């Protein structure tokens, strides 16, 4: 284990740290976070529409079309909002006028969504289906804006004019270049940019909804955490658009009365795998609160309240788990076991698949119930998951206590 840790620190950690701190990845993460409130609000109306209460379906049937309007309004603009937010954040990081960056990206993104046949907007492209296009457009637009600004290929006005006017004229040349370029690609050359982007990402989109694919992701996230890297942040810019797209497709299927197509939709990992934090460390805290070792007992008691809300940094760094061979094994193992169990139960139809987005700080079991739209079986699996994590952590916790006792006795 020591050799593995040294190998990871030497060859893997530096590369993944650089990826996590990359300017473009940081902007994508910020953009994905910005759409979360939309999915939560839309999810609330979805819960009201499909409450698991006997007779509720009949009672709410006359109001169902009205209740689904906010769902469509929120999930239907995920790509649009993500494009705005990513461009704004990246523009600020590049010291451009962020509002102008967002406006330029919005104009280009909407241009791409126009249907040549009838000159109307392709509405699916404004939602989850356009997320990858939104990301690429935002990054390209701000990069071009910075390039033109740095090279002085802009129209400048006297400094005495209002700032908003100055910045508007400053964006004219790069915006003209971008509009003409994307217009030529999309309408003159006839390249369906949305289709090309979706095709490029299709292998990854497919893989993350398979058991092997989500297991690889679970292994990487927990392993990165084990060596001190925020695993979720490091990979979130890559996987968040995919999990969000899964969620939107599940929402569409639910409102259309169809089976939910995706198991690993947004909420699967944060709720069903991260039970009380990544690695299901709530179970470890429950073990340590009655530890005979005073230091372990203190860490368990201090960290327990935060872990109820999925925040496990106190135990992760206080015990510690990071770079600790004794606890790294059960930490990664729990993520793999809970990923496998949750995936199989949903695939077999024994638990409802996620279609409601709830804040990641929602306590376990409650989160299991809400994410699945009120499936009591999911809540029961939450209890079982916690018990499984306790069983996995228990022998390692006792081994660590014995090691500390022997060390003090020497």
UniProtKB/TrEMBL annotation:
Annotated TM spans: 30-51, 63-86, 98-114, 126-144, 164-185, 205-225, 237-256, 268-289, 378-396
Protein location: Cell membrane
Record keywords: Cell membrane, Membrane, Sugar transport, Transmembrane, Transmembrane helix, Transport
UniProt topology in membrane: Multi-pass membrane protein
Gene Ontology CC: plasma membrane
Primary location: membrane
Gene Ontology biological-process annotations: N,N'-diacetylchitobiose import; phosphoenolpyruvate-dependent sugar phosphotransferase system
A Pfam family assignment: PTS_EIIC
GO molecular function: protein-N(PI)-phosphohistidine-sugar phosphotransferase activity
The protein, known as: Permease IIC component
UniProt source species: Luteitalea pratensis
